[in-house]
């Protein structure tokens, strides 16, 4: 799979691009789907994983349902560099992450597409949309999975959010014992919750986190826990009628549905919210088949 160069600092950023083909004959292909007129699906992963988390869905959607599927490794995660060769460009914020997405989609000239973004990826997709004419002209909708939008950190108005002190403790624990913290977190409400998950599958998730750059892990926590997208969402509601699908777990401790997806649904009344029962933060591990079904229904609706 290829890399491209960030226009911000020259960092080499990795992406997956699954383009439907008829040679060899696809497995379990759905005859009612065509690869000529369907929008591309653009996947953005959650912290602290990589585009690999989306592989099971991307294979289904590309091979059987004939969608072109693109997934970017956020800078510092997977096979993407955290920073490039320009030492004066060190202020990497949410807008830089969004610019990386704009760079990729404009370079590939993907045409019509839909964002499918998990957790902090929702913020990246929203800022990419607001900052690029090309994205606004071609984006057909958003699917936000266990989103951190609009703001996952506790406030006096929304005390159910995770406190700033807790996010700081997460950083301290990662500095002290990154592998141990990730292993325990992924087995609890920040990961798969009470669901039974095979050990080898959990090991694969842990390896994704192990591959991430330490600085990227820490600064990403600071980014998604410190950026309030409420006004940006309100602007989106005023300026577009794009459909939005929210998929969220009812037991997500990191981005509780009460302070994230429910609030997004209030700011964007046209959005549709589906809450998965007995579901925590890493839905792709425990509820992949449900996500696949809901994506297919969403794409049919648009």
From TrEMBL:
Tell me where the signal peptide lies: none
Keyword vocabulary terms for this entry:
Hydrolase
Domain AB hydrolase-1, chain residue ranges per copy: 39-287
Q: Which Pfam families match?
A: Abhydrolase_1 (PF00561)
Q: Mind telling me which InterPro entries this protein's record contains?
A: AB_hydrolase_1, AB_hydrolase_fold, AB_hydrolase_sf
Any one GO molecular-function label of the UniProt entry: hydrolase activity
Q: Which GO terms describe its cellular component?
A: membrane
Top-level division of the source organism's lineage:
Eukaryota
Q: Tell me, what is an example of a GO biological process annotation in this record?
A: monocarboxylic acid biosynthetic process
What's this protein's name? Answer: AB hydrolase-1 domain-containing protein
């Amino acid at each position: 799979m290829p890399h491209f160069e960030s226009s911000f600092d020259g960092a080499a950023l990795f992406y997956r691009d699954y383009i439907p083909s008829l040679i060899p004959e696809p497995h379990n292909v759905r005859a009612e789907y065509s690869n000529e007129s369907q929008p591309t699906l653009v996947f953005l992963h959650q912290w602290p994983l990589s585009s690999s988390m989306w592989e099971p869905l991307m294979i289904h959607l590309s091979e059987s349902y004939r969608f072109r599927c693109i997934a970017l490794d956020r800078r510092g995660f997977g096979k993407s560099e955290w920073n490039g060769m320009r030492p004066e460009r060190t202020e990497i914020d949410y807008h830089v992450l969004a610019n990386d997405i704009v760079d990729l989609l404009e370079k590939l000239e993907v045409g019509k597409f839909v964002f499918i973004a998990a957790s902090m990826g929702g913020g990246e997709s929203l800022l990419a949309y607001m900052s690029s004419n090309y994205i606004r002209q071609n984006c057909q909708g958003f699917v936000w999975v266990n989103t951190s939008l609009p703001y996952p950190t506790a406030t006096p108005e929304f005390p159910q959010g995770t406190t700033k002190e807790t996010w700081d403790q997460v950083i301290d624990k990662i500095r002290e014992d990154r592998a141990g913290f990730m292993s325990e977190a992924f087995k609890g409400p920040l990961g798969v919750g009470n669901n039974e998950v095979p050990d080898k599958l959990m090991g694969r998730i842990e390896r994704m986190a192990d591959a991430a750059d330490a600085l990227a892990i820490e600064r990403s926590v600071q980014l998604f826990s410190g950026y309030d997208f409420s006004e940006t969402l309100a602007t989106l509601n005023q300026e577009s009628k794009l459909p939005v699908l929210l998929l969220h777990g009812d037991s997500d401790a990191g981005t509780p549905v009460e302070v994230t997806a429910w609030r997004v649904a209030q700011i964007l009344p046209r959005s549709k919210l589906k809450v998965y029962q007995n579901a925590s933060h890493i839905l792709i591990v425990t509820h992949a088949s449900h996500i696949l079904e809901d994506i297919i229904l969403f794409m049919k609706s648009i």
